[in-house]
Amino acid sequence: MTLGELARRLECPVEGDAAIEIRRVAKIEEAGPGDLTFLANPKYASKLASTRASAVIMNGEAGSLRDAVPCAVIRSQSPYLTFARAAQVLSPDKPPAAGVHSLASIAPDARIDPTATVSAFAVIGSGATIGARTIVHPHVVIGDGTAIGADCILHAHVSIRERCTIGARVIVQNGAVVGSDGYGFAQRADGSHEKIPQRAPVVIEDDVEIGANTTIDRPAVGETRIKAGTKIDNLVQIAHGVVLGKNVLLAAQVGIAGSTVVGDNVVFGGQVGVGGHLTIGDGVKAAGQTGITNSVDAGAFISGYPAIANSEWRRSSAVFRKLPDMRKQLRALEERLRKLEEK
Which of 114, 212, 242, 286 sits at a 20 to 30 Å CA gap from 264? Predict the structure, then answer.
């Protein structure tokens, strides 16, 4: 594809030779002839002069850097987003042929759109529905009464349990489980535990992505809901009755305990832990390994355990490193004070 054609599809202007052939996208350090790269972070600007890429995507305000660029330029106000779209154009998915494989196990009353793909060894339960152009890869299990929307991709070994609802354009990566039993037990008089039946559904709204080996539990009553546009990384645990808002980002190994409500546009770094029955306001950001034990107001940026404002945590961290020396100083002062008092 020529650079000019690619730029037209990206709706961005070109500076330089629009007739250059572009074959793929690449990192700025690794790109060669025929490659398209991008500059979204100014700290990589020094690499522009030595890049061998045929073209680079740059911010329209980066005019002062133009003389340092030895190649053609696609101008964009959001270079990283444009780069992502360029990657989609240059490396489009090749969906498998529609139809149901002869080795799939399909309940007689399951409804599968004729444009959907169901691969070998997939299992689709009674009353389940599969939407248009959805792709079900091998060894996926879809429970009774579950509804899967249009244009979804369920990768190998995904399990969608009974009576769950999956919206449109949802991607579920390998090994993820949606609708597993919530962790609910009532203590008996003798100290043992009675299992509370977990029968309520999980609802995944449109344009959600769920990472590999992530688990999303169903509750005993009510529902667990993941709202539209949320992106969940690998190895995340979402407990029963949790509600995640729109466009939430959860990095790997986040754990959210039961019945917590997370607002829209929240971002949790890796290994963030959230207690149960809390409310996390819209736009909250939590740095990696933050432990959230109380509800958090909208817009807060928090860190540490127990979670406090990020600015306070950073100041506290600087003090933590000095505590051993401060302890020595305190003991020395106490000793001097004792001697003075004796005199």
Answer: 212
